[in-house]
Amino acid sequence: MTSPSPSNPVPATPPFGVALGQGQPKDGKQGVPVPSRVRVHHLKAWKERGERISMLTAYDAVTARIFDEAGIDTLLVGDSIGNTMFGYDSTIPVTLDEMVPAVRAVSGAATRAMVIADLPFGSYEASPTLALASAVRMLKEGGAHAVKFEGGAHLAEHVRLLTRSGIPVVGHLGFTPQSENMLGGKRVQGREEDAIEILVDDAFALQDAGAVMLVLEMMPSPVAARITEVLAIPTIGIGAGVQCDGQVLVWTDMAGMTDWSPRFAKQFGQVGAELYAAARAYKHEVAEGTFPDEEHSFSS
Ligand code: KIV
Questions:
Q1: Longest Cα pair distance anywhere in the chain, in angstroms?
Q2: Confidence category of residue 216, pLDDT binned at 50, 70, 90
Q3: What whole-number distance in Å separates Cα of residue 16 and Cα of residue 102?
Q4: Whose C-alpha lies nearest to ligand 1, atom 8?
Q5: In Å, what is the CA distance from 41 to each residue of 44, 48, 87, 107, 246?
Q6: CB of 237 within 8 A of CB of 248?
Q7: Sign of CA dihedral 135, 140, 142, 143
Q8: Which of 71, 99, 114, 125 has the fewest CB atoms found within 10 Å of its own CB?
Q9: Which atom of ligand 1 lies nearest, measured to the CA of 57?
Q10: Is residue 54 within 8 Å of 234, Cβ to Cβ?
Q11: Banded model confidence at residue 4, pLDDT cuts 50, 70, 90
């Protein structure tokens, strides 16, 4: 298969309707064969080679298929589904029963990306065995390849049990949205000297327990750079600077679906405006009686 390089860029336009889902070459890394499925050993190898890892959130089969075809390496079925899809004002109300069908939809659509399922608030904190039971649902019912949960050293035993049970775990440090009530709202973490040391210790504790990757959210870039430098496992930043081993964005922010997005979330498209325009054009043609025309009708 073809790997992207300056002379072979990833196509800017998706192969809709022609090759989408029909074996179109997908994004690989410099001169390295494209893995048929991204797995934990690829993540580590990419870090070692300095090749950055892409992650987007996905919550349904339609977007998962597009992002997978676009070569996104890992898809996170985040509990941000609460804010983005369910209209909650935080991730806290999200339940395991709400997450599992979304994980199933994404894992059913993605053929290359590693699918990571977020464990929602209340589904893991109380004990390693609770975390294992929730993670097992994500793999058995959802078809996920890994799970993610928020927190530091105090969850090392949770990570250890899941890892021993064959479930790859992604950690999440810095601003952890499920703890926003303790953290005093959406605030950058790790600004004080002792906070930096705690973050580094947390990162090591998770790595030592077997975590395969860490998400670093909303922390000063030098802090994320330091964690990235000292760890053997990859870091994925969101509002954590460019020195991380990869980046994640909530897809609705990335695609410009909302009026507001956080400062760190660059909009790479204006899909919301496009969708609005399509809906307006459709409404207009329905009102005018010009849709459906001959081409979109059955004459016999
Ligand atoms: O739920 C989510 O989307 C996340 C990302 C912000 C990392 O945890």
A1: 76
A2: very high
A3: 23
A4: 78
A5: 5, 11, 36, 19, 15
A6: yes
A7: positive
A8: 125
A9: 3
A10: no
A11: very low
- pLDDT for 193 equals 80
Distance from the alpha carbon of residue 213 to the mean position of ligand 1, in angstroms: 14
Q: What is the pLDDT of residue 260?
A: 87
Averaged pLDDT for residues 33-40 = 86
Q: CA 82 to CA 250: how far, in whole Å?
A: 12
- Give the model confidence (pLDDT) of 119-175 as tens digits: 999 999 999 999 999 999 999 999 999 999 999 999 999 999 999 999 999 999 999
Q: Which residue has the tokens 């998706």?
A: 14
* Å from CA of 78 to ligand 1 middle: 5
pLDDT in tens, 74-124: 999 999 999 999 999 999 999 999 999 999 999 999 999 999 999 999 999
Pocket of ligand 1 (CB under 6 A): 57, 76, 78-80, 118, 215, 217, 238, 248, 250
d(CA 298, CA 269): 36
Ligand 1 center–CA 17 separation, angstroms = 30
| Nearest protein Cα to ligand 1, atom 2 | 78
Nearest to 225 by CA among 245, 205, 210: 245
User: Which is higher by pLDDT, 187 or 34?
Assistant: 187
Distance CA 15, CA 4 (A): 16
**Amino acid in position 143:** G
The per-residue pLDDT for 24 is: 42
Q: Which atom of ligand 1 is nearest to the CA of 248?
A: 7
* Nearest-CA residue for atom 6 of ligand 1: 250
User: Which one of 98, 180, 217, 274 is the catalytic residue?
Assistant: 217
Q: What is the dihedral of CA 20, 22, 23, 28, to 10 degrees?
A: 10
Our answer to whether residue 217 is catalytic in this structure is yes
Q: 79 CA distance to ligand 1 centroid (A)?
A: 6
